Amino acid sequence: MKAKLTQTIPLRFPDTGAVLHMSVFREEMVARVLTLSAVVLVFSYITIVGMTIVNVIAQEEAHDEITTTRSAIAQLEHEYYTRMESLSIAQAAERGLTPVSDKQFLQRLSAVGVADDGSARNGL
């Protein structure tokens, strides 16, 4: 047994003599619900598209910032290596550094890390 949306139930108004049917009220209610649903779906779609665009723009800005930071780091590294190559023993002596004639090296008698079942653990 199927429910009908257009069930007609006459409503009589004795004062005016008008007759209304219940089907008119149901059709209006269904139309309002469908219209409201369509409006909600449109606004949801616009919101999702807007959020997607904002996320793409934010990702591009982050990528540009990463590229700029990497470039700055590369320039600093280049400057460091250039300065290191330009240093000489005479410049070091001017700054108070002296060459070490008696060098001593440290040796660790135990292993720094021990491999156990494929995972390394720090064993200081």
Summarize the model shown:
With 124 residues, the chain is mainly alpha-helical.
Notable features of this structure?
124 residues, two-stranded antiparallel sheet, two-stranded antiparallel ribbon, elongated
Protein topology:
Elements: E1 10-12, E2 19-21, H1 22-86, H2 89-94, E3 113-116, E4 119-122
Antiparallel strand pairs: 1-2, 3-4
Detail the poorly predicted runs.
none
In terms of quaternary structure, the protein is: single chain
Q: What is the typical, i.e. mean, pLDDT?
A: 79
Question: What form results from the Cα inertia axes?
Answer: elongated
Distance between the termini: 80 Å
Describe the protein in words.
With 124 residues, the chain is mainly alpha-helical. The protein has one domain. Helices cover 57% and strands 11% of the residues. It is built from 2 helices and 4 strands. The protein has a two-stranded antiparallel sheet with strand order 1-2. A two-stranded antiparallel sheet has the order 3-4. β1 (10-12) and β2 form a beta hairpin. The longest helix is centred in the middle third of the chain and has 65 residues, at 22-86. The mean pLDDT is 79.
